[in-house]
């Protein structure tokens, strides 16, 4: 993004890449998946705007899978979770849901059965199997890991989204209302999907309302309620069977049996009943034909009795609704606790809407990323007529993600610098005995002076200082740096900013590229999240050091850190020496130069302190400079 006088502040919101879509979140989820899977399976994570599903990883072996997770924003249905915690909870729930399919769903057998189904009925078979299997894998995974609340949350938000879209459809086409509320109509196909879901992991109460003859706001389309009610006994038996069936292949076969029952009912109804009319699918459509997809036994499902009791509980509510006994109370109480079937039956699952999140409230924020916040500061610099700065570039991330291997190597090599800086900062904060006071503890070294009447012969214990350091690195990406120099400079910069970040020193990287100052790492940003900007080997055009120093001065002169400093990594002289000298003279922060390939003793007039290095000694030279700087500050 180019920041100019014409850039509007609202445009900068595009720089706040949601954390849920960041490379750091992807790696976090991959680490979580690796901890929850055996050594034989490898799980990688990819993102998609809306979809969630699992598939074999291409070219990575028979036990490698890729789980695709959605990055879209899911609205909270009545909760007050901080945005970051909310997004993470949703993605963790999707991750474990898909892990359940990776381990326990026999998509190979599903593909075989799907091929034998007539094309007209394939959507029905896919829906029957997918909705029932969702309840199975969530029950199994909830009994393996502590993700019950995450699944409750996920089901709650998907139901809320489905209802919201359904009501929007009714409003859009000005369809029927009851007491001012939209009437949500379901085809038998749509109602069947809701009924199977409500007999699975969590009962939303929607199916009970659909079959309730006294509920005017959820109805079966075209008056086909009796056809749906006739399917209820078969639904109960089917869901109870699959919820207690550990074998994934037999679950597919059982789903095919029930599909045939449902197909026979729908075959006698108008064609519109075999499809979606007012509702849109909001759950992941996981069921896909996959050759060679093996399924483990789901050994933590409830037994026959527990599964039947779970379904019978829902069945009793449906019976009351069908007979009209429950009236307006047919919709589930939103505050009622729900217990998924299986070994967590005795654990109370608190409804998400009643969750207390006060302890997490400090994690809430404005939603602006460090990159957006820094861009807003830079836009103020561009808009300031006194700076005569026409443009600043916020670098777009490289499509290949940057050289991650070189970054990891740089991080490993920075550990000694990190330890040294940490030691020096601890020494800086350590209490000290300061001599020369009139009161305190007598200083033995000043006894002679005391005998001659001197009064300042005492020491006093003074607390150490906690200086607020910050560092801005200016990286020269001019054409003369192309090749090995820029690779080396990037690696040295990576080592420096990672070590500084690790010891709590705020760092930013501003490069000079294509004639403009370019923001690569913002203050407040985590360096590891900007590898796709820092490790790209970009180098082109000239060396406008005066412009870069002007931007650095504006950013650091406004009070960012009580002890800020600038490090310039370059191989050439400023393109406008006089202008550069004036900018340097106006700086109230120290500017240090690291020169590549120049003779010692040259370019000294351009910096408060300068060091010279060859390409193969650049990293060590930068580290010595920073160690010396912190030692002096301490």
Description:
By secondary structure, the protein is an alpha/beta fold. It has 19 helices and 18 strands. It has helices at residues 23-35, 83-104, 107-115, 122-144, 148-172, 188-198, 206-211, 225-243, 248-267, 304-322, 370-383, 404-413, 415-429, 447-451, 484-502, 531-534, 545-557, 577-586, 618-633; strands at residues 2-3, 42-48, 53-56, 64-70, 177-178, 181-182, 184-186, 218-220, 392-394, 432-437, 441-442, 458-462, 469-476, 506-513, 516-521, 563-570, 591-596, 609-613. The protein has an 8-stranded mixed sheet with strand order 1-9-15-14-13-16-17-18, sandwiched between helices. Strands 2-4-3 form a 3-stranded mixed sheet. The protein has a 3-stranded antiparallel sheet with strand order 10-12-11, with no helix packed on it.
Task: Characterize the overall form.
Answer: elongated
Described by strand count, sense and barrel closure, the largest sheet is: 8 strands, mixed
Quaternary structure type: single chain
The helix content is 40-55%
Low-confidence stretches: 323-339, 343-366
- According to DSSP, the number of beta strands is 18
Q: Roughly how many Å apart are the termini? A: 39 Å
> Roughly what is the average pLDDT, rounded to an integer?
84
Q: What is the CA-atom radius of gyration, in angstroms?
A: 33 Å
Q: Describe the strand arrangement of the main beta sheet, using strand numbers.
A: 1-9-15-14-13-16-17-18
């Amino acid at each position: 993004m180019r920041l100019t006088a014409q850039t509007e502040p609202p445009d900068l919101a595009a720089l706040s890449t949601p954390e849920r879509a960041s490379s750091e979140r992807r790696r976090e989820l991959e680490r979580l998946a690796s901890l929850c899977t055996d050594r034989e399976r490898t799980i990688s994570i990819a993102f998609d705007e809306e979809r969630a599903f699992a598939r074999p990883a291409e070219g990575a072996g028979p036990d490698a899978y890729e789980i695709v997770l959605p990055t879209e924003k899911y609205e909270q249905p009545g909760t007050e979770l901080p945005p970051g915690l909310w997004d993470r909870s949703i993605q963790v729930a999707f991750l474990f849901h898909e892990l359940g399919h990776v381990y326990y769903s026999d998509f190979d057998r599903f593909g075989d059965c799907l091929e034998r189904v007539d094309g007209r009925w394939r959507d029905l078979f896919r829906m029957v199997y997918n909705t029932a299997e969702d309840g199975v894998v969530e029950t199994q995974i909830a009994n393996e890991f502590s993700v019950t609340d995450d699944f409750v949350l996920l089901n709650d938000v998907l139901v809320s989204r489905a209802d919201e879209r359904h009501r929007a459809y009714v409003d859009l086409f000005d369809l029927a209302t009851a007491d001012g509320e939209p009437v949500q109509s379901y085809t038998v196909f749509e109602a069947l999907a809701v009924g199977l879901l409500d007999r699975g992991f969590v009962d939303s109460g929607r199916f009970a309302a659909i079959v309730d003859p006294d509920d005017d706001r959820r109805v079966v389309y075209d008056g086909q309620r009796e056809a749906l009610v006739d399917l209820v006994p078969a639904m109960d038996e089917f869901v109870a069977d699959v919820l207690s069936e550990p074998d994934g292949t037999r679950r597919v076969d059982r789903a095919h049996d029930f599909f045939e029952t449902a197909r026979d009912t729908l075959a006698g109804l108008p064609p519109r009943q075999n499809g979606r009319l007012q509702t849109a699918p909001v759950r992941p459509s996981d069921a896909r034909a996959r050759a060679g997809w093996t399924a483990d036994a789901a050994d933590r499902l409830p037994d026959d009795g527990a599964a039947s009791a779970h379904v019978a509980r829902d069945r009793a509510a449906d019976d009351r609704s069908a007979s009209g006994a429950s009236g307006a109370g047919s919709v589930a109480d939103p505050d009622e606790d729900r217990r998924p079937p299986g070994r967590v039956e005795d654990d109370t699952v608190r409804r998400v809407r009643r969750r207390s999140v006060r302890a997490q409230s400090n994690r809430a924020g404005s939603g602006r990323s460090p990159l957006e916040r820094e861009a807003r500061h830079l836009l103020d610099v561009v808009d300031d007529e006194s700076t005569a700065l026409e443009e600043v570039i916020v670098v777009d991330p490289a499509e290949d993600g940057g050289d991650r291997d070189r970054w990891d190597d740089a991080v490993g090599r920075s550990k000694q610098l990190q330890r040294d800086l940490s030691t020096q900062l601890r020494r800086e904060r350590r209490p000290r005995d300061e001599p020369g006071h009139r009161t305190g503890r007598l200083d033995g070294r000043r006894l002679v002076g005391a005998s001659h009447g001197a009064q300042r012969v005492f020491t006093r214990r003074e607390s150490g200082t906690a200086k607020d350091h910050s560092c801005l690195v200016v990286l020269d990406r001019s054409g003369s740096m192309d090749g090995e120099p820029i690779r080396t400079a990037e690696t040295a910069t990576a080592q420096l900013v990672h070590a500084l970040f690790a010891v709590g020193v705020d760092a930013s990287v501003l490069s000079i590229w294509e004639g403009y100052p370019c923001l690569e790492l913002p203050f407040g940003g985590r360096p590891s999240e900007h590898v796709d900007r820092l490790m790209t080997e970009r180098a082109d055009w000239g060396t406008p050091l005066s412009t870069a120093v002007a931007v650095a001065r504006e950013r650091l002169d406004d009070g960012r850190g009580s002890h800020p400093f600038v490090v310039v990594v370059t191989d050439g002289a400023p393109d406008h020496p006089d202008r550069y000298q004036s900018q340097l003279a106006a700086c109230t922060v120290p500017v240090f130069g690291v020169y590549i390939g120049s003779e010692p003793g040259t370019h000294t007039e351009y910096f408060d302190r300068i060091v010279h290095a060859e390409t193969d000694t650049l990293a060590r030279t930068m580290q010595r400079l920073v160690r010396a700087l912190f030692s002096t500050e301490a």
